[in-house]
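USER: Study each token:
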Amino acid sequence: MQNAVVSSFLRVGLICLAIHSLSSCETGGKTPAQETQDSTSTIGRLNRKVTESPGDVDAWFARSKYYAEQEVFNKALMDAEQALSLDSFRTDILLHAADLYYTTREVEQARTTIQKALALDPNNLDANLRMGELQYYLGQYQSAFEYLDKAILLDPFEARTYFTKGMIFAETGDTNLAISSFQTAVEQDPTYFHAYMQLANLHATKNNDLAIDYYQNAIAVNPTKQEAYYGLAYYLQYHGRPKEAIRVYQDLLAFDKNHVPSIHNIGYIFLFEEGKPTESLTWFDRALSREPDFYLALYHKGYALELLGQEDSARIFFEKALNQEPELNVAKAGLERLGS
């Protein structure tokens, strides 16, 4: 399961993390409040500037950036394209448009637009970095390294470059170089949450307690991210520190009371680590109230009931677990023990 935590940060979403000018990677269709009603609002002022000066490239660019910040990406892209129709030699607008093309799933158009920026300015740091990130996303690792290595020559202190190289090393199985790259990333940017998470996850797969420090660093720089708490608690749980794991799971539940894996895992600890099947039932019931088909919670509730001598009820939950996951061998074994 820890490997699943590691892979969740690989490839998918890398460009979302890298595109610092956009607030998310959803393609949403939000409409900013007061867009048409209030001429003194931000969008009202931007609309007026575009209307009064339709040949002003910066007016279109400014409104495009505003729409991007508001996650209205279709309008942001239209304005970026209009700005480029007025001045196609602006690398800052080209790279902004490339971000928008990627965000709206026009990946090939994103690559073409970055290439235009590179043709205009081969030594543009952002253009080389973005192309390296995009080539990584497309699985073109050698090409990605070429752009990323050039980005390092242009600015050896840019953390994103080392992070992206670390992602490639991690995906291709070179754990040591991945760790080295992510470590360099956090040295350049001590607030780099995702680099701390990669370091934590990679050390966790090596059963190295440095994972604990990196999860804690990730929590310190961004205490709202569930994955850092869950990764830390899961590591503690499976490395002989169940009471600490419960505390971290409960920290997570303090701001997300419906985080079913954490609820279930607390029950699991009470059942198997603490030897308290009665207490565990409270947590399995809580998990099942939120996710009735969660087959592991169904099975573990059945096992707790079996330990408490409630064999008929245990049998029901083993059967429910098998209905959800027919190949769950522990549930089959449970029914065999009960003579079913």
